[in-house]
Automatic annotation (TrEMBL):
The lineage of its organism: Eukaryota, Metazoa, Spiralia, Lophotrochozoa, Platyhelminthes. This is Serine/threonine-protein phosphatase. CDD domains: MPP_PPP_family (cd00144). Coiled coil: none annotated. It is an enzyme of class 3 (hydrolase). Its cofactor is Mn(2+).
């Protein structure tokens, strides 16, 4: 990949609880990960603990420099849904659509769990964000939360690769980093992007009657770092509160509870239009839900 050379000494960013001593060349790390062999894993050099912790700390420093929960992004941009540790799929996306900075990307979260190569996925994406901050934007999904990624594979992958003691340090580094990821993106002031969707939160004040600028300001008033709660705007955006699209044939305008978990909602076209109006947007793009053809547009 055509990456500018970036060599970052991390001593000035070091959290004393994170044992980071290495000098990191993100350019070399990106090239190495981009060269991941499709058929011969044994010849691949995986990210080591120092690299993981250093990338996490640099990402925290970068993400904490911007207080916005909702990113403002300009088109053209490629929007990518859940990766879930499928590293070769991520590389295929870059092969087909172009590598940063030639092509711009907004990722909607859920980078880890389920797949075999969550470490490679998240280390590469964080590194690309650091090298090309105007070309790679990362949002938070519900799997970038401690109570989820410790149950669905990421914790096990880290422990298996690095052992319990080192693995615990690496896992904590990623969990701290995830707490700083933004929750939403607004493309050209028209397309609202997040991992989860909408819920009754956006039918309440300050969102229901706010002007678009005020709604964005309200969203950005939340302060990171945090673990997403079960309910509220942070839970809705990152998918902690699960959201599903109701059939367009349903005439009910409101959102309604959807399943036994007690934290899901289905939403109609009318509810969607009301929520989007609060942000001055005309389209919602979300991840979190399987689309067999790669994407679907159920409420258009």
């Amino acid at each position: 990949p055509r990456c500018k050379a970036v060599s970052l000494r991390t001593s000035e960013f070091t959290d004393p609880t994170m044992p980071i001593t290495a000098e990191m060349n993100l350019n070399e790390l990106i090239i190495r990960l981009m060269s991941f062999p499709a058929d011969e894993y044994s010849s691949h050099r995986e990210p080591d603990p120092d690299e993981c912790l250093t990338v996490c700390q640099l990402a925290i420093n970068f993400l904490s420099s911007d207080t916005a929960i909702c990113l403002r992004v300009q088109s053209p941009v490629n929007i990518v849904g859940d990766i879930h540790g499928q590293f070769h799929d991520l590389l295929r996306i870059f092969d087909r659509l172009g590598q940063p900075p030639k092509s711009k990307y907004l990722f909607l979260g859920d980078y880890i769990d389920r797949g075999k190569y969550s470490l490679e996925v998240i280390v590469l994406l964080l590194s690309l964000m650091l090298v090309y901050p105007n070309s790679v934007y990362l949002l938070r999904g519900n799997h970038e939360a401690a109570n989820v990624c410790c149950r669905y594979g990421f914790k096990d992958e880290v422990m298996q690769r690095f052992g319990n003691e080192t693995g615990t340090s690496v896992l904590m580094g990623f969990l701290r980093c995830f707490q700083w990821l933004p929750l939403a993106g607004l493309i050209n002031q028209q397309i609202f992007c997040c991992h989860g969707g909408i819920s009754p939160t956006f039918e309440l004040e300050p969102y229901r009657s706010s002007k678009p600028v005020s709604a964005i300001t309200s969203l950005n008033s939340m302060r990171r770092p945090f673990e997403p709660p079960q309910f509220g705007a942070p839970a809705t955006c990152c998918g902690r509160t699960r959201c599903r699209i109701r059939s367009s044939a349903c005439s009910k305008p409101e959102t309604s509870p959807q399943n036994k978990r007690g934290c899901s909602y289905m939403f109609s076209l009318e509810a969607l239009e009301s929520a989007l109006h609060s942000f001055g947007a005309g389209l919602l793009v979300r991840g979190h839900q399987v689309a067999q053809e790669g994407f679907m547009s159920p409420l258009t």
